[in-house]
Amino acid sequence: MMCDALMYFRLAVCVILLLQCTVRYSVAMSRPKPPHTVRYTVRLNRAQGERVAALKAQLHAKSDNEVFDYLVTVGTNQRDDLEQLVYSLFGNLADSLAHRFRSLETVSQLHLALTDTFIKYALTALPAVPSELMAGARARATKIYEQVNITAAREFQRRRESGAYSAAELGLEEE
What span, in angstroms and rounded, lies between the C-alpha atoms of 149 and 144? Predict the structure, then answer.
């Protein structure tokens, strides 16, 4: 019987000690967090706290967590929309540049074809100049060449001022 009383006393002391430890340390011991939640501690100044309170009232939110969820959702959606807009603008710019380069290549090929045709005509249709007339022919050709260049420059300037070289006139703008 003495043994039972001693055992009972030891058990009672253990239970009391366990209860005292539980009461004393249970406040400091955190409960296990659910695996689907993450905890954040946010420090705000007074103005930020007032803005959060005003937003909470506007949203009719029940808690600051709902306000935080709203801000995170709206912020990420706006960032995603802005990212899509930037990608779209870069895509449009790349398409526009590709179109303009194709148009420029077409104009260059046309110019090359016209120059090639003119050179072939000049080489095949013009008679050979006799050697005794070569000096005079060169002087006359130089004078004609200068006049052609001056006329071409004037015509180019006239067309530029009239708007004939605008992107729309050259067919470079999409309609």
Answer: 9
| DSSP code of residue 103 | H
Give the separation between CA 55 and CA 63, rounded to whole angstroms: 11
Contacts of 174 (CB under 8 A, 6+ apart): 96, 99
Kindly list the domain boundaries of the chain, sorted by start residue: 46-126
Burial label, 103 (beta-carbon count in 10 A; 0-12, 13-18, 19+):
middle
Q: How far apart are CA 136 and CA 33, in angstroms?
A: 103
Name which of 175, 152, 172, 156 is nearest 164 in CA terms: 156
Q: How far apart are CA 155 and CA 158, in angstroms?
A: 5
Give the tokens for residue 151: 């006329």
* Dihedral angle sign, alpha carbons of residues 152, 157, 161, 166: positive
pLDDT in tens, 66-79: 888 888 887 777 77
Amino acid (1-letter code) at residue 49: G
Report the b/e string of 31-57 with b at 16+ CB within 10 A. eeeeeeeeeeeeeeeeeeeeebeebbe
What is the pTM (predicted TM-score) of this model?
0.38
